[in-house]
Design a protein that fits this description.
alpha+beta, 112 residues, single chain, five-stranded antiparallel β-sheet
Length: 112
């Protein structure tokens, strides 16, 4: 089980930011409202979004983009590929490939 930071988009354009424990693929799919996709990062964190977020017309997630700015090794934001829809942030995978708890520096960034 890993503690993840959820950066959710609410219907009226607001953002909900909170932590939750995740232990199954289904729990992650529920949090992002669909199939999951890992966002390429510098490997200090793992970021997960809805695989079809753009196709479904999900709105831009500025709070998740703020985190991606710090871990964007591949220049996604510079290429205009900001994150859309709900996002979950975890720590990097452990030696067995399992997700780890969201790092403290991310919680500090969002003031949790």
């Amino acid at each position: 089980m890993a503690l993840g930071l959820i950066i959710g988009q609410l219907d009226r354009g607001d953002t909900a930011i909170y932590t939750a424990n995740f232990d199954t693929l289904q729990s992650m799919q529920h949090a992002v409202r669909g199939l999951i996709e890992f966002v390429p990062t510098d490997e200090s964190v793992s970021m997960i979004v809805n695989d079809e977020g753009r196709i479904l017309g999900m709105s831009q997630n500025a709070a998740a983009d703020m985190i991606l700015e710090h871990v964007d090794r591949f220049g996604l934001l510079n290429a205009g590929q900001g994150l859309v829809g709900d996002c979950i942030v975890f720590g990097p995978p452990d030696g067995e490939g399992e997700l780890t708890d969201v790092p403290q520096f991310i919680l500090d960034m969002v003031k949790l």
